[in-house]
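Quick note —
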Amino acid sequence: MIELLLKTSESEDYCPFPSQQMKVSGRVLAVSLALAFQYAGASRKLPHGPPEDPPNEPGEVETPDLGDLIRLLRDESTGVPILTEVVPAGKECYEEGVEGGCCLWPLASEDCAESCVMVKDGYRVINPDYIDATCAVTPPCDTCTMETDFGRISSARAPADMFDKSYDEAIALLRQSVCQLYEEPSGRLGYFAELDGIPEEYTIDSPLSNLALYREVMTTGVLDLASDLFPGSTPPLTHLASTFFGAAFDKTGSINMDTVVYTNAIFDLPATTVLPTKCIDIRGEVMGEVAARNKCFIDYSEEPLGTYNYDRAQNFAGLPNPPYVPGGATQSGVFEFLEEATAPPALTFHIANAGIFEKVFPSDPFAGEKAALSFAKAADDTRAVINFMHNWPVPSDYVTPRVCTRVQATLYNLYIASLQVPKNINAGAEERELLVTVGNSGRDTAKDATVVVTGIVQTKDGTMLDPIELGYSGTDDTLEVDATESFDLDPAETVTFTGFVPVELTMGGEGSTINWIAEIVPRSAGEDIMPDDNIMTEETAVKRGAKAPKKLRAL
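Predicted structure written out below.
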């Protein structure tokens, strides 16, 4: 299984799905198509489409204490920080009388004085003689630390519901692809949507969408897409996650282990993930006192992440997937790009194709067995290819089309768009209207669907009374008690059903509540891709009521 997400793009290319207003209760963990396909963060045929920035006012969110976010010495396998061996200078971290354990060990900048630097595990780090008992770097070495660059990844501080929405939109589009999904040369995922009967290519290029996909995969350990949507085998978890991270980053930035691990902390992934974690005590100053704090990290050395031995040449030999360039007898590992054909002043360009690895990473065959370092390298390689494609884009009218391998499954997405009931009602009131609007935002027609609106009375003393159900009567889009007629819903179609509150539901007495549940139920062949959208609830308060009549039996 695999999952994906998308967000609105500023690309002018047309996306074939209409916007729809839908009301969704809570987070849909499976694929929520709820807020429809509002250009859904994809750009047609332009894999380098313009980036999406987070909202100007994302709202206040509580984020974990991340310290100074400086570059640190880390274990290349686990991603966990390697701590100083002595602090303060000359004393063992856990020597009797030394409180708080060991300090984080900062990396040293290239322009740092040699007296401030020592080499540890192949990295330039701050000499611990200049790290005091509070773990602060002291003069003259205090200017030698390096800040971690986040770029657009800093949007990880945005509210969780923004990522939930982006993920749900993306995964819905991917699941409804009319053809098998594809991986473009950088590894980003793409899908096909049908426009006037013709499959069109779209790439998930929104940084926010890719970051949301990363967050979901690293939280749940899965991506909820059927394996038959992929050509060949489903890409492994680490491949997908590192690609999502790289696609979310600035094209011209640089991703390292610190970028990845700090982003995990911003998302609070060590506390929420199903993936393995490792916790250590880290010395630091807390509320003016030196103490050890226990911090946890995703452990990249353990399964299912620990098997990730990234090989740059091997990775790009399998992209794009499926191969499509130069057309006809396609070759794996080859992509197309714009290239200078003649030099100035008569500068001209032509469309060229070459190996991805050879063109973007000449003479740099990285291959590593350290999982955390491999993960960061893979993410940065995705970023590098995206940057190359952005700088040397093939005009959209000349892009070699990908092969569409049709997906045969019937896919629809039924949902409750709204449930409108009286907020208050008097006992014995008649002819109080209720309305329920249902729709299908899926790819195919949903046949033989039924809609049921159930009212359950809870009296003031908490007694639950027998439910009363209203369903489609079969005529004039009306609801009647105990009716069960079915109907068809075409793609992008919505229907509003109208009924009246049964007077029996108002007789629970003053202070009673009518609990409403509206549900649309698919009964035809095919798959409803977002079943969590099929239910909506509301309440009606009963005023000036009488006692419940005998015919209303307690459950």
